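[Solved] Which block belongs to which protein?

Original post:
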Amino acid sequence: MRTKTRSKTISLALIGLFLLLYIALIGVRPLVVPDEARYGEISREMLVSGDWVVPHLNGLRYFEKPILGYWLNAAAMWVFGQNAFAIRLPSAVAVGLTALLLFVWARRFSGDDTTPLLATAVFLLSFEVLAVGTFCVLDSLLSLFITAAIVALYFASQEKAVRTKTVFILLAGLACGLAFLTKGFLALVIPVLVIVPFLFWEGQFKTFLRTVWIALVPAILIVLPWAIMIHRCEPDFWHYFFWVEHVDRFIAPRGGQHPEPFWFYGPILLAGAMPWTPLAGPIVVGLRHTTWRHPMIRLAICWLVLPFAFFSACSGKLGTYILPCYPPLAFLAAVGVLQCLREGDARGFITGTWFVLCAVCLVLAALLFGLMFVPELSDSVALWKWGIAVAGLFLWAMLCRAAISCRDIHKRLLLYCVGPVLFMFNWPLLTPAALKARKAPGAFLLSNSARVSHDSVVVAESGLTAAVCWYQGRRNIYILGGKGEYEYGLNYAESRCRSLDIEQLKNMIAQQRGAGSVVLITKARHYAEYRERLPDPSHKKNHDGLVWVEYTPASESATLLSQLPE
């Protein structure tokens, strides 16, 4: 009875942990460009235009991703309004549902709740999971659906009853269909890449192959309606989406977008798994004491290693791509560290905890030094927020020290898990200190928004365009210089006029005489390159690397009057 009560208490604590870290403060942090502004603006334009089939960014066709993520963001905005909380909420909820799936799956491993509870805590407290899950990108949603597909396929592989097996396979197909609508063909690659080697390892491939094709039915039924509608509206969508967004990005020798070396994801995985990385030693030792014949251990290995190898082999890389690797990593970490401690080998755990303790103390000392001797640091964020950070680091250090001294396995792990919570909770409050206006231009744009009238023409460089659309409530911004991610949409004949070079901007300013102002929003270093080729502005404001420039030419009659003698 006491064990059940403790499990229920910890389960409620994990729900509270999720709400505290992933929900409570997600609207506090300023919107970051380009990703959050992009995904938020596409969803906003869906609400404004009523077009729920074709994604548009700044009124231009935007075919880099399918539709589901935009739908969920738009739905959240419809309920909670146009704000940062709404566009981040789907990502945060996706993390919570992924943690729930991990808990349900991990319960099959042992007779008690310790392993699933610890695996859930490891997952929720991993730095990358928290960073991506409170950020408006599609990776948390993709990770949720991939996790659901793999877990459902695992349960199907372990079922003897045909009806139950079929239900799980259908659920896997449903998850794959939703994953496809989130990020495309990757949704099919990852589950297949994981489950096929696992079935070979288990000796079930031929048997399972007879029924697994049933998963195609719900997957096709989920994807087909929108696939047909987007093809009828935009026949070029599938050509662009398949070749440019998949072949070029992941396979092309030139690297497509975001080229990185093969080893790129190694440091990302280790840093993203903090604060659990220092326990790698006891985790490995504990896994050596675990039976490798257990199907869940085999699946977790396939689930972690093969997608990691696949993403490493791809030419285009982003740190968020390996997020689907964290559920199996959390499971293996929980199994390994528990087994190691249960074997009576606490040396590795103590050594890793001492490492964390020393690192936290160094960060705490550096922070206190900075607050005392670096005025820019104390001025960037309110002092009470820094106070929470200091208290969080101090508490983390004290709980690490208590975990080292504690003898009870469960209390020792509980102390280790609780340690970083207050500091991680404070992250959104400290973010403004690390974000320049170039990455979070919202405050700068809003401070000048009253100067823009209905007749004003707004011009921005591509990297700032989505943010300008979001904060100005427009979808007709002209793009200066490089086309960036708008290149495809600007290739359409009716949209080419939206791309300007310096001479075209100069002509536009002259043609606006008497009709309204021209507003230019760009980075200061870019403005310095071509300001000599533009007229003198009527108003200019610089802030933290950004420039707001206004050109308000006088009307022709006003110009003539100004030339008359007094």
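(Second protein starts here: sequence line, then its structure tokens.)
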Amino acid sequence: MNNVRLKILFFASWYPNKHNPVLGVFIKNKAQVVSNHCDTAVIYVQKDAFAKKGYDAESSYEEKVFTVRVYFWIPRNLILQALLYNFRFLIAYYKAWKIVKQQWGTPDLIHVNVPDRAGLPALFFKWFKHIPYVITEHSTPDVAYTKGETTHPVFANAILKKLIWKHSSLGSVDSTISKKFFEKIGVTSKIIVIPNVVQRKESQLHSRSQLFSDQRKIGVHISNLIERKNVRGIVQAISQLSKLREDFEIHVLGTGEQEKQLIEQARNLGILDRTLFFHGYVSEQQKLEYLTHSDFHILNSDEEGFSVVAAESLCYGKPVITTDCGGPEDFINENNGIIIKRRDPVVLLNALEQMLNTVKQYNCRQISEEANARFSPQIIAQKTLEMYWSAKTEWKMGNTSHRCSIPTDAIVLDVGSGHQPNRRANVLLDKYSGGTIHRTTQELVRPQDKEFVEGDALAMPFNDKSFDFIIASHIAEHVDDPVKFCNELSRVGKRGYIETPGPLTEFLMPTRSHKWIVTKKGNRLFFRENCITKSSFLFFFRFFYLNRDGYVNDTWKTSSKILIILNMILIKIWFHIPYAYTSIEWKDSIVGMLKSK
């Protein structure tokens, strides 16, 4: 890899918030581990009937991650909600974007987590701001359809999701079953598998505590108590097992729509608080206490895209009983657990009895180390970073935002980097470390993720062909000897990009520091001495550089929104006007020639 620190903006459909502190916590964990390698920010938007001013925004750094949450109000009337939701949702994203841009900056790449909602604004940013995005899909796949047990998939928002996937630069899912599901429903984007982050706390690596009796083997189930988790099947199996033996306890952690029904079922079967215990919602620390002090974990779901709790159990050395529900089949095997058929009470009963008889035979240390090697933050962060670099293949150059394709492992030099060093550059070269007329009095910028070298572009202190790509944006018009400058670029670099003001710009908006008017023909640049010292169209000059620092004596200052918007439109249009800029992307060598008046 290289020393460039990417700027990654997460668009999260699920994220911990003031109403639900555990929603999408695995996405927050991913953002946190990524922040060790990239500058990272998160936008999360949610409807809120109690939003005070229509849109309530919160922004702060949560550890290293700049996080913006915007809550937006919508009316309680269901018809009005349907009409206004998407509009107000996008407005809320725009407000969050303005905060991010002002306080954190512009991202190199957007990382969409669950495209159900966050994918739509990402699509707009791709179309209108040309910021590419990658997708991580956390939604549970239709396992029955993927395994061929049903003929029609359950796929919410199918048309929108396929559109969002189509325009993504790359995508990841957290399990093989999810990848197969998307391939089967016709998503043609490249998809890779990156598991979720599971952070093992070394201080919790012990086996038993006073929470449980040493005379009994302990099983734990952790989930939302909903139909898809099939906890009723666990209750029924424990009832049958309790008739055969009582050397075990099963503890259920979590809450949900079926909690009261399940407790009542256990009470009617005579096993509540005897062999089966319900604890409701518990804190993360309490969950770890139950998990790490147990002997095994039970997962009886119909569908799972990954199952963080199953992976977490393995990281603490606990074998897992799981159904063939999708995600866990990637990492559960005979050495660390038992895989059983879904919705089969007899098979579940037999698996529980087998686990109770053999649980002491599992190599807990080996289970823990193998799982930690697979799901550790360092491993997941590295795989995610590789996905980012595979997706970020094009980089903006110069004032025109011309895009150049640069390989991940390329070493890039920015010559005359000045106050606007290119994001992709690994090394910066500039002759002036202090203020200079050549930067219109702007200060030199030295980002921490880039090496800075003070030197002359006409005699660069680098070996021949030592850079894979050289960026020379708005410097060729400043040098004393442009032919020698082009020769130096050819000597030091293998490829490159040069951009200068064009003849039209020099005519309408001349700058005293520009020594040459630059044109091109084929792979050649032609330099003609610039004798224009003052604009004949002063009105245009002052308006083009409206509110621009460094041109204080010649430009206008205004707070008029109309003039500011018109100025922005002019600058956007100017990029596309012939002879406004001269630019060339070269390979092997670039030829510079002097041209007589």
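Accepted answer:
You had them paired correctly. Confirming on the second one: The domain at 409-595 is CATH 3.40.50 (Rossmann fold).
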